[in-house]
Amino acid sequence: MPDDRLEIPSAEIAHHYPHLKPVMDKIPAIDHDAAILLLLGRDILRIHKVRKQYNGPNNTPYAQQLDIGWVIVGEVCLRGVHKPSSINVYRTNVLPNGRTSFLSPCASVVHIKEKFDKKTSSQIIQTSRETDLQEDYTEELGSNIFERTKDDEKIALSIEDKAFLAIMDKNVYMNDANSWVAPLPFRSLRSQIRVVFDSSAKYQGISLNDILLKGPDLNNTLLGVLIRFRREPIAVTTDVQQMFYCFTVCEDHRDFLRFL
């Protein structure tokens, strides 16, 4: 029977297992000076009687209360390993010439490269490498140019659409009356105030709609709506007229929509 002290359970072992925490204060500290002299066999049956037990998941240690105290049975190594008290590390440096060495390279090193006026063999090799890379890139570009993706049918946002969304993300808020307050998405804030009865009516070739960003088109396509009408036996339509009363224009822009 080996007298390996690493197999002796401790309160630290019980701390790392939730089902053993109730017996943490009942496990004595390990006495490294104590001698291992006595083995209790089956001839002393009372010593092996289990009075109380804390079990846990499979392949985890369990605790038993005997007449001589609490014991922990099972693998007491944390996750199958023991924490070492010290670690040895060997550091390797890569020298400028590509060699590896235990010695640290000198930081005060100057590298001088000669610049040739004429095309040399090294430049020819470099040019050849660049040509090969360009050919590989061209071949790769041609091999996947006809690949289909899930985003092929999606319409990308334009520059004005992105500007519209940026304005709305920054300035839209809900007021105390639970109404959404939004600004007019002007293309430019240099327009002059004038009476407008029709946003599409032009004056000197410019209308109110011409200087407002339209934003991305979020309407469902008519084809998709008609196809979805065939999926279920009942179709439901709604009117968004009341939704417009939930939005107000910010106070700084209300003069652009004022009536006399």
From TrEMBL:
UniProt name for this protein: Peptidase aspartic putative domain-containing protein
Species the sequence originates in: Synaphobranchus kaupii
